[in-house]
Amino acid sequence: MEAVAKLYSRSIDCSIQVSRVMRPDDANIAGNVHGGTILKMIEEAGVIISTRHCNSRNEERCVAVLARVERTDFLSPMSIGEVAHVSAEITYTSKHSVEVQVNVMAENIIKGAKRLTNRATLWYVALSLENVDKVVDIPSIQYISPEQQEEGRKRYEAQKLDRIETKQRNEDNILPAINVDRQSKEPFTVGYSQSSLIHLVGPSDCALHKFVQGGVTMKLMDEVAGIVAARHCKTNIVTASVDAINFHQKIEKGSVITVSGRMTFTSNKSMEIEVFVDVDHVLESPKGKAHAVTAFFTYVSLDKDGKALPIPMLKIEMEDEKRRFDEGRNRYLHTKAKRMAQAQKCQ
Amino acid sequence: MEAVAKLYSRSIDCSIQVSRVMRPDDANIAGNVHGGTILKMIEEAGVIISTRHCNSRNEERCVAVLARVERTDFLSPMSIGEVAHVSAEITYTSKHSVEVQVNVMAENIIKGAKRLTNRATLWYVALSLENVDKVVDIPSIQYISPEQQEEGRKRYEAQKLDRIETKQRNEDNILPAINVDRQSKEPFTVGYSQSSLIHLVGPSDCALHKFVQGGVTMKLMDEVAGIVAARHCKTNIVTASVDAINFHQKIEKGSVITVSGRMTFTSNKSMEIEVFVDVDHVLESPKGKAHAVTAFFTYVSLDKDGKALPIPMLKIEMEDEKRRFDEGRNRYLHTKAKRMAQAQKCQ
Amino acid sequence: MEAVAKLYSRSIDCSIQVSRVMRPDDANIAGNVHGGTILKMIEEAGVIISTRHCNSRNEERCVAVLARVERTDFLSPMSIGEVAHVSAEITYTSKHSVEVQVNVMAENIIKGAKRLTNRATLWYVALSLENVDKVVDIPSIQYISPEQQEEGRKRYEAQKLDRIETKQRNEDNILPAINVDRQSKEPFTVGYSQSSLIHLVGPSDCALHKFVQGGVTMKLMDEVAGIVAARHCKTNIVTASVDAINFHQKIEKGSVITVSGRMTFTSNKSMEIEVFVDVDHVLESPKGKAHAVTAFFTYVSLDKDGKALPIPMLKIEMEDEKRRFDEGRNRYLHTKAKRMAQAQKCQ
Q: In Å, what is the CA distance from B22 to each residue of A203, A238, B117, B214?
């Protein structure tokens, strides 16, 4: 009986559902909802549930800040007028991080059909409201079994390793994201489709604290990646997946963010775009030199019936473009192999 | 066992929860979330659940359109950074209407406190997607008891009567909402605080069909009422309640809406503002002469600690202003008496 | 008697007022509303009134599209929580253009004070809804006196001349707006503050037709100009004025706009920023080579009390920067002389 009560209270405190109708402004002109809109909703659910949890047994008031999103696949595009249901649950806690798992369902309320469109895993840390440079201890959740806790711990260790690695890689690679000399008029080259936008961080980007919410940044990253993809293949393009993203810097209200994207790799049916976020603390001098965020987005191109179209091959002109293309191919083959292994396991 | 299964399926199909963090743009400069933001979220939950229901057993594809909102009280103001949880449930169906009851909770995820802020009842009709002038039959819901159904039927009859009455009243009263000759420089007069705004109906105001969603209209109405109230008493004002609102006209994408408000009555601690919505089909000549929507909003004025301040008395200059003031007082006394009767019943 | 009736009907058909409360997202972190927010509201009033007028006696359904905005001064910055009242009136019609004059008032509804913040003049043409390449004839308005009409005709001829001139100048000047080689790390140079953003044109940018509304474009231009100004002087900056802007190309929904800005001139207390809009019709190959829109924005820098601060002088490194600086100084001196002449006339 007590166990049931615990489970019940857990489902109240440790889960949340965020839903809303998809509007024209959430979608491209073909009516497909931008991946960035979904990523922003996912992160909103994540920040709510983890801020709530971190304050549940703490005396020190704190807010959750996104540290990492695991690789996310977009299983099927959503359309205008459909309802997105984002449900989030806390699945693991370490001393200083919270793991949140999120499911996104698309519901066509006219036809009555529901389908899974995304699964995502997010990691948050909690910062003290009095001193935003202080990381606060996280209350532990109740696990259903020791195995469940042990699996969580493994996921925690794996992401920690990856975070450290990318941080070092970013610090070694302080060059500007976009090689401005290489703006090119020749179609299908890297220079032809590379794009960059600036965004002034406003109050609504920072509703819970004075820093940009991770979801806002991811939405801008997807926007740039989508423009790079559209410039390359001039068709209806949609987000297929996003590789793991690590957030290494807090970005304050009033900053100017520069988000840049360049194509790194094309396969027969997909394109990989690398996206960089750089922060310009307009009113102060810049502190560090590393990119605040980097990520790889994969896009596909769809015909009128939603079938994948072939992608024009990326024209490589320079040594470093060649290197990045090869690295992109490795990531592509690695993911493909992993997916086949999983499919076999399920048979 | 079957009963449980039914209840379970009912909770899936007939209920929904819409949640999100309140942002700076949702609130006034004192940080109190606008009543209009809440009304818009309430209506979004209502339109999702009723459109879903109307398509559940129908072969004819249809969308729900808001016909009426019952009187709604704002029990406590929400703040930026709090999470609004709007949960809606279908509680009655007639041949052509759906009743949706909605609860709004405010959650302070930092302090961990939750409180009820609103309860609302909405009525929808369903229009065919092929022919938007055709009203579609509504599938019946399952009632837990005959009493529950009978009580719903009474609510249905009562609102139907009120809808017919206000429709006639509106058609008799085709004068412009705001008497522009009476724009006055003298504080506390009707002419001093009367206000009007126009809004060009864009695509995102009409996500589910080609008509403005009722919630969008209510948000604009609350915005005008708030400006009238602030002009009158020059303090931090918040929505206390909205009288029943009937929607008599569909408003199409691309129309220009004029929303006008004037103060009708002041008590010691509250102000009543009448709001009119008129439609200008920019690209065509106007069709009817009746206002598309009218409603009475009640506002209170708060000091820094959230305590109600006295309201400067409305200065009456004209015969019709006097008549409206008396009608406003009647509504005020009627509501007060009703509330006291309810309070006594609960003792 | 007839004259009165005409004037009355004119004030109903030919004028409009758009009002709304300024929200946190409309302003910078110092709380000053962006000039672009005001420009967007001005254009929204203009497009409504001129579309309404063009359809009033026409059998052919049409929409108004912005062709030109005359030089606009920002007389005093607006703040969050104030109400912006934008009132627009049609003041001249030629065979194919409509002149709209707009006044913007800021009202502090708490203090009860109102002040004029902007005056603007806009020119629209009307395009057929069936065939957007067809310019539709404009119904003539009634003039109060022949003098009034004659003055309108002079304004019409003057703007026509300027439109033709800038079109030629733009076509001669097809180089990329931003010299990417010149991104510089040295403060106060042109390369240091130059900025550029991309924007994917969405449905809400095109509420009345399938082209971007002029106000949307102007808001983006002001956004880039503001970032250039903030990067240069790292203080609270506000828009002081915008030179005449001509719109030479329709920009369709789904296009990608690149908006670029570079500083051209600094005086003791002001900075001039040149802004370019280029269109990338993602799904088609580009047609022309001329910039879609260009404009000069003037910004000032304010201290905490709203007093103008000195501007760090622009460091000139290249021949063409020197030429642009001198042209900017000429514009600056010309405007200053004109303003002094006007001031003397008024004495």
A: 12, 29, 14, 20
What is the pLDDT confidence band of residue B171, given thresholds at 50, 70 and 90?
low
Q: Is C208 in contact with B254 (Cβ distance < 8 A)?
A: yes
Å from A175 to nearest chain C CA? 13
CB A174 within 8 A of CB A47: no
Q: Are residues C261 and C326 in the same domain?
A: yes
Number of compact structural domains in chain A:
2
Instruction: Say if residue A339's pLDDT is above 90.
Output: no
Do residues C164 and C181 share a domain? no
* Catalytic residue ranges of A: 28, 222
Chain B environment of C83 (Cβ under 8 Å):
195, 227
CATH code where residue B75 lies: 3.10.129.10
Structural domain includes residue B346: no
Touching subunits of B (3+ CB pairs, under 8 Å) are A, C
Looking at the structure, tell me whether residues B192 and B251 fall in a common domain. yes
With an 8 Å Cβ cutoff, are C61 and B283 in contact? yes
User: Are β-strands B293-302 and B236-242 bridged in parallel, bridged antiparallel, or unpaired?
Assistant: antiparallel
Of B48, B61, B80, nearest to A21 by CB-CB distance is: B48
Neighbours of A347 (CB within 10 A): 4
The residue of chain C nearest to residue A235, with distances taken between CA atoms, is C283
B42 shares a domain with B150 = yes
- Residue A180 tokens, joined: 């401005």
Q: Which two tokens stand for residue A142?
A: 């109740």
B51–chain A nearest CA distance, Å: 6
Same-domain pairing of B87 and B218: no
Q: In this complex, do A129 and B110 lie within 8 Å of one another by their Cβ atoms?
A: yes
ipTM summary value: 0.84
Whether this prediction's pTM lies above 0.90 is answered by no
Give the domain extent around C102. 1-172
